[in-house]
Design goal:
The protein has helices spanning 9-21, 27-42, 44-47, 66-88, 91-94, 113-124, 133-136, 143-158, 180-198, 215-220, 232-242, 255-259, 265-282, 288-302, 305-321, and strands spanning 51-53, 101-107, 128-130, 161-164, 202-207, 223-227. By secondary structure, it is of the alpha/beta class.
């Protein structure tokens, strides 16, 4: 706790008294209560600068190829063991930069980037904060750096995991200097590079435009995890896991046929939720026709007109079969 959180002596005494007042006699339970109390007390400064994500996802819910899952577990292990390696084993004395653990999650929308960040935060029992770019970036010279300084300083005190969603908007390529605006924009990116390297916690960048990121960031990232569009087998597994255990699901749902729909995990989640609402409205169970109806609505959002007609015909044939 001393390595993870930054509290004054008075704050430590207050937190310890509050945990003792809870009356827990078990040492492991007391340690868990103290950890949670520290998390709650430390997040106050961050909640004014970023949005906290309630991390509920677990490893079993994450459907990814083995290589990507192995990388995510490696990230989790490095965060958990960083103090032993840096301090106990002496790496901090030999290194003066690059001690921060940072990762890039790259992939199309809905492929599981945010869920993966939740899984890591849940495993480590740390708070996860999504950075609101509108609250950070400022058109006035020098203000963006000030906002970033506040953000990273608060994150250092809280030990939180930073999640920069759509990071290409903030970590874009540095441009050729043609006027003063370009020069100050490049200064902002250089400042970000420095803070990313010095930040002692975990910073995750998520983007669906990997090529738009500055190459200097790419070189200094410790991990790059590519989130692919799920294949048929992955989609089938997602369909099997998408409905909560308490949802009344018809036993004859054809997961193999649903997996034939070229959807990301996020789209499948939307379909499952819409199908559940349709079932609740009918007062019955989630059936294949209801799922197909919800899938048609989802596909209309992003399909081009010709594809809409193809999928609509496919849906009608499937509904007739059922």
């Amino acid at each position: 706790m001393a390595e993870q959180f930054s509290f004054s002596q008075n704050e430590i005494k207050r937190l310890a008294k509050a945990a003792q007042a809870a009356g827990s006699q078990d040492s492991s339970k007391l340690s868990c209560d103290l950890w949670q109390a520290c998390r709650i007390a430390a997040r106050a400064g961050m909640e004014q600068l970023a949005t906290r994500i309630a991390a509920k996802a677990e490893w079993e819910q994450l459907v990814l190829p083995p290589e990507q899952k192995a990388l995510l577990r490696q990230i989790t292990d490095q965060v958990a063991q960083r103090n032993r390696v840096y301090d106990t084993w002496g790496f901090r004395e030999k290194m003066n930069r690059g001690l921060g653990i940072n990762a890039l999650f790259a992939g199309e929308s809905g492929t599981g980037k945010t869920m993966a960040a939740e899984v890591i935060a849940n495993e480590l029992q740390l708070d996860l904060f999504r950075i609101d770019l509108s609250a950070v970036v400022n058109k006035y010279i020098g203000e963006t750096e000030k906002n970033l300084r506040k953000l990273f300083d608060a994150a250092e005190d809280s030990g939180a995991i930073l999640f920069f969603d759509e990071a290409d908007a903030l970590f874009g390529k540095r441009s050729e200097v043609k006027d003063s605006h370009d020069r100050y924009a490049n200064i902002e990116i250089n400042y970000l590079l420095q803070r990313m390297e010095s930040y002692r916690g975990l910073a995750i960048l998520a983007t669906n435009m990997k090529s738009a990121l500055d190459k200097a960031f790419m070189r200094r990232l410790r991990f790059i995890v590519d989130f692919p569009i799920p294949g048929i087998e992955e989609r089938k597994e997602i369909w099997r896991k998408v409905f909560p255990p308490d949802t009344p699901v018809d036993q004859v749902l054809d997961y193999q046929r649903l997996a034939a729909l070229n959807m990301t995990g996020g789209s499948i989640q939307n379909v499952a939720l819409n199908a559940a609402f349709l079932a609740a409205q009918d007062g019955g169970r989630v059936t294949m026709p209801l799922v197909l109806n919800a899938a048609r609505t989802e596909l209309r959002k992003w399909s081009v007109p010709r594809k809409n007609r193809i999928f609509a015909g496919w849906m009608r044939r499937r509904q007739n079969e059922h």
